[in-house]
Amino acid sequence: MRTTVTLDPDVEKLLQESMREGGKSFKRALNEAVRQGLKGGGAVDERPFEVVARPLGLQAGIDPARLHEIEDDQEVEEFLRKSEALKSKAG
Q: How far apart are the first and last CA of the chain?
């Protein structure tokens, strides 16, 4: 099928890069890009995102999701200590 298409400048630049890097003709580069876009495929050489886990170095039995509770307990203890100190000064 023959048709006339007006390309946006950024698309033209990408198409020219594809032609230059792959040694492709305009027709081949355009057909591959359109085919890949319509199939919904991403770039072939893209690697999937990967999370690299690292050990936290916590002792056995410590739940890292509950560490904030220790801080809360310490804050309450400090508040009570200061309250008792103020009471003893006042009394």
A: 97
Tell me how far apart the alpha carbons of residues 12 and 71 are, in angstroms, rounded to a whole number: 58
Is pTM beyond 0.85? Reply is no
pLDDT in tens, 53-62: 998 788 888 7
Reported as half-sphere exposure (CB side, CA atoms, 13 A), residue 70 has a value of 6
In a domain, 81, yes or no: no
Q: Which domain holds residue 28?
A: 9-39
The tokens describing 19, both together, are: 């032609």
Distance CA 53, CA 51 (A): 6
Does residue 19 fall inside a structural domain? yes
Is there a contact between 16 and 5 (Cβ–Cβ < 8 Å)?
Answer: no
> Into how many domains does the chain fold?
1
